[in-house]
Amino acid sequence: MKFLGTIIFSLGVVFLLTGIHQTMTVGFKESYWLFMLCFMMLMLYQWVKSKSPDKQENKGKSGPLKKVRVKNK
């Protein structure tokens, strides 16, 4: 997931920066599609990250702590 996630996230950042540049030069109406591609890449990144086997293996290991009762003397 690391390589694929890095590529997807990088594409999202590139589309965001390109969209900002195009907005400043030609306007938002003509660069809207770049922001939508950015949004899609970031959503795809979140989905791939949630489905990664790395997260599945660690599931349960870092869960919430159990409450332990201490007997008073």
Description:
- The chain has a domain at 2-52.
- With 73 residues, the protein is mainly alpha-helical.
- The model has no long low-confidence stretch (mean pLDDT 85).
- Helix 1 runs antiparallel to helix 2.
- The longest helix is centred in the N-terminal third of the chain and has 25 residues, at 2-26.
- The radius of gyration is 21 Å and the shape is elongated.
- It has helices spanning 2-26, 28-50, 53-57.
Fold topology:
Blueprint: H1 2-26, H2 28-50, H3 53-57
Helix pairs in contact: 1-2
Task: List the defining traits of the structure above.
0% strand, 73 residues, 3 helices
Query: How would you state the average pLDDT, rounded?
Result: 85
Secondary-structure-based class equals mainly alpha
Order of helices and strands: HHH
Helix percentage range:
over 70%
Report the biggest beta sheet as strand number plus sense, adding barrel if it closes.
none
- Tell me the overall shape: elongated
* Distance between the amino and carboxyl termini: 52 Å
- The tally of strands reads 0
SS element count, helices: 3
* Beta-strand content bin: under 5%
Q: List low-pLDDT spans.
A: none
Radius of gyration: 21 Å
